[in-house]
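thought: fold this chain, then report.
action: predict
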Amino acid sequence: MSYEAMSHTHSGHCVAVDADRKPAIADKDLTPELRDALKAVAHTVHRLNAALRHAVEAGATVELRRRARVHSGDGCWADQMAPLVLPKRTN
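observation:
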């Protein structure tokens, strides 16, 4: 979902963030708990991307698909992902 679509469809007080744009939320607005949670997500995504590159180089096609969506109850949500892995066919 694009930044524009996200900003028009999310509810509550969550802020849409696109990787190519500076977040619309100021660092001063982040609680220490939220800052730590976002750092953990960023670190994990970085490791996931490295693992995906490694899998591709080893001969797999990997597609991440939404498996579930979790909700906070106050308008915030996140997609939980599951990989679909297709090994390279060798004949």
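thought: worth noting. The first strand starts at residue 60 and ends at 71.
final: tokens above.
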